[in-house]
Design a protein that fits this description.
With 174 residues, this protein is mostly helical. The chain is built from seven helices and two strands, in the order αββαααααα. The protein has one domain: Arp2/3 complex 21 kDa subunit ARPC3, CATH 1.10.1760. β1 and β2 form a beta hairpin. α2 crosses α6, α3 packs antiparallel against α4 and α5 packs across α6.
Length: 174
């Protein structure tokens, strides 16, 4: 039953992202680039702090694949691999992270979104045989990471309200 609720919450995140951020309603335009948060990755980060590592691996792969499917560019599977690896790494290193602290949530989201989006942008340009342009890709990834990180504490609080239906333990597993 837990997986059904996680799938429903992930679906709601994808729909909200598509309705409000992809359409440009809440997206921010900076230097001709649309900056959008990654709600699905924020949910994945929340789950990475609460689920077992092998469960986080599956969640990361599924969330990344869903992100690839709704993406307008890129190769299928790149996002899945990136989500999977980053969330799994965070689940392995979570003992030193205080997931209830706002600063920790901000920094965790900032680093994870920057890493996933930065590598995804470079990989997408590489697979399209386009010039790599690492500077603009890093700039867009940094701005999206910053936008996501500002929303992360609020979303973590909202997801924490769903800990009962998600059947998540109050603390991170040992």
């Amino acid at each position: 039953m837990r997986w059904v609720v996680i799938a429903i919450v992930a679906y709601v995140c994808i729909v909200l992202e598509a309705l409000f951020f992809r359409a440009g309603l809440l997206a921010i335009r900076i230097d001709g680039q649309w900056i959008r948060p990654d709600l699905l990755l924020i949910l994945g980060l929340f789950l990475a702090l609460h689920l077992e590592s092998h469960e986080v691996f599956v969640v990361g792969w599924c969330f990344g694949l869903a992100s690839d499917l709704v993406s307008v560019a890129g190769r299928l599977g790149v996002g899945a691999l990136l989500f999977c690896l980053v969330l799994y790494l965070i689940s392995l290193l979570r003992k030193g992270v205080f997931g209830t602290r706002v600063l920790a949530q901000f920094l965790l989201c900032l680093g994870a979104v920057f890493l996933v989006h930065g590598v995804w942008y470079v990989a997408t340009r590489y697979f399209e045989a386009a010039p790599l342009r690492i500077g603009p890709s890093a700039e867009q990834a940094a701005l999206e990471a910053l936008y996501s990180a500002f929303l992360a504490p609020y979303l973590f609080w909202l997801f924490a309200m769903l800990q009962g239906p998600l059947r998540l333990p109050v603390g991170a597993p040992e």
